[in-house]
Fold this sequence. Notes:
Layout: E1 9-22, E2 25-37, H1 40-53, H2 71-80
Antiparallel strand pairs: 1-2
Amino acid sequence: MVGGRLAADAQIVAPIESTYWWAGEIRRSEEWLLLMKTTVDRFEELARRVRELHSYEVPQIIAVPLVAGTADYLEWIRRETTPSPGE
Length: 87
Protein backbone atom coordinates (compact mmCIF):
# COMPACT_ATOMS: atom_id res chain seq x y z
CA MET A 1 0.00 0.00 0.00
CA VAL A 2 2.82 2.38 0.87
CA GLY A 3 4.88 1.34 -2.16
CA GLY A 4 1.91 2.03 -4.42
CA ARG A 5 1.31 5.41 -2.74
CA LEU A 6 -2.17 4.37 -1.61
CA ALA A 7 -1.05 5.12 1.95
CA ALA A 8 1.62 7.45 3.31
CA ASP A 9 2.41 4.96 6.06
CA ALA A 10 1.15 1.77 7.66
CA GLN A 11 1.31 0.58 11.25
CA ILE A 12 0.66 -2.97 12.42
CA VAL A 13 -0.71 -3.57 15.90
CA ALA A 14 -0.65 -7.23 16.78
CA PRO A 15 -1.71 -9.58 18.02
CA ILE A 16 -5.12 -8.48 19.22
CA GLU A 17 -8.01 -10.61 20.45
CA SER A 18 -11.28 -9.91 18.65
CA THR A 19 -14.80 -10.95 19.64
CA TYR A 20 -17.48 -10.51 16.99
CA TRP A 21 -20.67 -11.84 15.44
CA TRP A 22 -20.20 -13.93 12.28
CA ALA A 23 -22.61 -16.35 10.60
CA GLY A 24 -25.10 -16.08 13.46
CA GLU A 25 -22.70 -16.83 16.29
CA ILE A 26 -20.20 -15.07 18.50
CA ARG A 27 -16.63 -15.86 17.53
CA ARG A 28 -13.21 -15.02 18.91
CA SER A 29 -9.97 -14.90 17.01
CA GLU A 30 -6.50 -13.48 17.08
CA GLU A 31 -6.14 -10.73 14.50
CA TRP A 32 -3.72 -8.04 13.40
CA LEU A 33 -4.81 -4.39 13.21
CA LEU A 34 -3.43 -2.41 10.29
CA LEU A 35 -3.70 1.38 10.39
CA MET A 36 -2.95 3.31 7.21
CA LYS A 37 -2.89 7.05 6.60
CA THR A 38 -4.26 8.25 3.29
CA THR A 39 -6.38 11.02 1.84
CA VAL A 40 -10.11 11.03 1.13
CA ASP A 41 -9.26 11.00 -2.58
CA ARG A 42 -7.25 7.76 -2.24
CA PHE A 43 -9.56 5.94 0.20
CA GLU A 44 -11.70 4.03 -2.33
CA GLU A 45 -8.67 2.77 -4.23
CA LEU A 46 -6.99 1.74 -0.98
CA ALA A 47 -10.17 -0.04 0.18
CA ARG A 48 -10.47 -1.85 -3.15
CA ARG A 49 -6.88 -3.10 -2.88
CA VAL A 50 -7.37 -4.27 0.72
CA ARG A 51 -10.45 -6.27 -0.37
CA GLU A 52 -8.42 -7.88 -3.17
CA LEU A 53 -5.68 -8.99 -0.78
CA HIS A 54 -7.57 -9.78 2.43
CA SER A 55 -8.61 -13.32 3.33
CA TYR A 56 -11.82 -12.23 5.11
CA GLU A 57 -15.12 -12.11 3.25
CA VAL A 58 -15.90 -8.80 5.00
CA PRO A 59 -12.68 -7.17 6.22
CA GLN A 60 -12.88 -4.15 8.50
CA ILE A 61 -12.17 -1.19 6.24
CA ILE A 62 -13.16 2.08 7.85
CA ALA A 63 -12.19 5.73 7.63
CA VAL A 64 -11.81 7.62 10.87
CA PRO A 65 -12.22 11.38 10.49
CA LEU A 66 -9.14 13.44 11.14
CA VAL A 67 -10.33 16.48 13.03
CA ALA A 68 -6.94 18.14 13.47
CA GLY A 69 -3.30 17.71 12.60
CA THR A 70 -0.22 19.79 12.13
CA ALA A 71 -0.01 21.41 8.72
CA ASP A 72 3.33 19.79 7.92
CA TYR A 73 2.10 16.29 8.82
CA LEU A 74 -1.10 16.63 6.80
CA GLU A 75 0.90 17.96 3.85
CA TRP A 76 3.25 14.98 4.15
CA ILE A 77 0.30 12.56 3.89
CA ARG A 78 -1.05 14.42 0.84
CA ARG A 79 2.37 14.53 -0.82
CA GLU A 80 3.20 10.86 -0.17
CA THR A 81 -0.14 9.62 -1.53
CA THR A 82 0.13 11.59 -4.75
CA PRO A 83 1.56 9.37 -7.47
CA SER A 84 4.61 10.76 -9.23
CA PRO A 85 4.44 11.05 -13.01
CA GLY A 86 4.91 7.57 -14.44
CA GLU A 87 3.70 5.78 -11.28
